[in-house]
Write a structure and sequence with these properties.
This protein has about 450 residues and is of the alpha/beta class. The chain contains 19 helices and nine strands. The structure holds S-adenosylmethionine (SAM) and iron/sulfur cluster (SF4).
């Protein structure tokens, strides 16, 4: 049995953290603002905060860290579902084997390319490939063929993959075919709950799943994304479990996660749950995002369209650095909407251009940057840059350049006016004069028709 998660320790930390003095919480928030992260004991204490005043201080701390590490950038992407066929029976998921109401579909390569083009036509450059776990329909070749076809056929510049655990050899293939980040959610870090939620199939094996990140690292993939599916069990346990998992692989491989996702359970057609077992309300959800931001400052936080428009806008300031937009959760959903093929119901139906406008209205800059992994700034190298604050020198100019491209190629007149104003302000925020000048020159090249220029 893999011992990454010490459940006894989690429960004892939680037990000890129930009645913490206000000043101790304040000290923890102040410490977090130094951007060096937090330990499990400190996180456990924050997780019990309910007092409104203290919660606001946690939120302010998260805003501070987000601003310092990520500035105003928000990276955008869209998921591409290639198949909803699945041999597992995860109780919460619309794709589960026993859901007889679902229209099953695995896209052909042509259909995958059509979907990628539809996503690209919205203005995206970054895709997350996702599908069910099926031994034949979604084997490794399904992924690598899809990646080759997408990269070859258009201007999608980064393909991240969210997939069930694989063998090291298969991860090596993902790497060879140009994976950006490999994403996998443990769903729940509690073994007993895990067993109940995943009764059959390969996914029933908790250890095979929790060691997936290790195998990905062994195969040379060093940008990895993790997450716990919120709503299956006590969120406090899950946050500590996830941080323990991170500690375990960071100790072995010297690299933390590139991203943490915060998926929260959504109703799904034909699911096997009567109701959400441990409902996480919006306030607790905000607290979770803010605590992740404080605890792991250099890891991106991803939020999907599972959340409402209002909450998504609010959470931009609290620590979220990547969001999906204009999403569909069924195979073929971008080209033509098929009924009863979705994994779960989405909650924010805004198009990418509406999302871009909202991001600008809130004072942020949309980024379509895909430069880091193409410049080999991944894994440890990325973390080094991030910790030195040098990542700003790449990310801010790259956000500006990719947003400019987006405005020119996809923007309406109104959005261009708004966007150009945001770009002007973002340029002024670049302290280094050489970088600012170089960005201005590159902007002119983009205006003259050149594309895909980055630092
Ligand atoms: N099938 C692969 C697997 O399970 O690892 C790939 C990912 S699955 C298609 C995407 C993720 O969606 C799951 O890991 C789970 O966390 C999440 N998910 C499943 N059902 C959900 C629901 N009803 N609401 C919100 N998220 C859900
Ligand atoms: Fe299949 Fe993944 Fe859904 Fe589970 S979460 S039923 S493995 S698609």
């Amino acid at each position: 049995m893999v011992d990454y998660i010490n459940e006894e320790l989690i429960y004892s930390l939680l037990e000890k953290s129930k009645n913490v003095q206000k000043n101790e919480i304040r000290e923890i928030v102040e410490k977090a603002k130094k951007c060096k992260g937090l330990g499990l004991e400190e996180v456990a204490k924050l997780l019990y905060v309910e007092d409104e005043e203290l919660l606001n201080e946690i939120f302010d701390g998260a805003k501070f860290v987000k601003n310092k590490v990520y500035g105003k950038r928000v990276v955008l992407f869209a998921p591409l579902y290639t198949s909803n066929e699945c041999a597992n029976n995860c109780l919460y998921c619309g794709f589960r084997r026993d859901n007889k109401e679902l229209h099953r579909k695995t896209l052909s390569l042509d259909e995958i390319v059509t979907e990628a083009k539809a996503i690209e036509a919205q203005g995206h450059k970054r895709i997350l490939l996702i599908c069910g776990e099926h031994p034949v329909k979604t084997d490794i070749k399904h992924f690598t063929d899809a990646m080759d076809a997408i990269y070859k056929s258009g201007d999608i510049r980064r393909i991240n993959v969210e997939a069930a655990p694989m063998k090291v050899e298969d991860y090596k293939q993902l790497k060879e075919h140009g994976i950006g980040t490999y994403v996998i959610f443990q769903e729940t870090y509690n073994r007993e709950v895990y067993k109940k939620m995943h009764p059959v199939g390969l996914k029933a094996d908790f250890d095979w799943r929790i060691t997936a990140i290790d195998r990905a690292f062994e195969a040379g993939i060093d940008d990895v994304g993790v997450g716990a599916l919120l709503g299956l069990y006590d969120y406090r346990f899950e946050v500590l479990g996830l941080l323990m998992h991170i500690n375990a692989f960071e100790k072995r491989f010297g690299v933390g996660p590139h991203t943490i996702s915060v998926p929260r359970l959504r109703p799904a057609l034909g699911w096997g749950l009567g109701e959400i077992p441990y409902l996480v309300n919006d306030n607790d959800f905000k607290k979770i995002v803010a605590i992740y931001r404080l605890a792991v400052p250099y890891t991106g936080i991803i939020m999907s369209t599972r959340e409402s428009a209002k909450l998504r806008d609010e959470l931009l300031s609290l620590g979220v650095s990547q969001i999906s937009a204009g999403s569909k959760t069924s195979p073929g959903g971008y080209a033509e909407e098929e009924e009863k093929a979705d994994q779960f119901e989405i909650n924010d139906h805004r198009s990418l251009s509406q999302m871009i406008e909202t991001i600008c209205d809130n004072g942020y800059i949309p980024s379509f940057c895909t430069a880091c992994y193409r410049r080999c700034r991944t894994g440890e190298a990325f973390m080094e840059y991030a910790k030195e604050g040098e990542i700003h020198e790449f990310c801010q100019p790259n956000a500006i350049l990719t947003f400019k491209e987006n405005l020119m190629d996809y923007g309406t007149d109104r959005l261009r006016d708004k966007g150009n104003e945001i770009i002007k302000n973002a340029l002024n925020e670049i302290d280094d004069e050489n970088i600012r000048k170089s960005t201005e020159e590159k902007l002119k090249e983009i205006e003259a028709g050149k594309r895909d220029i980055y630092f």
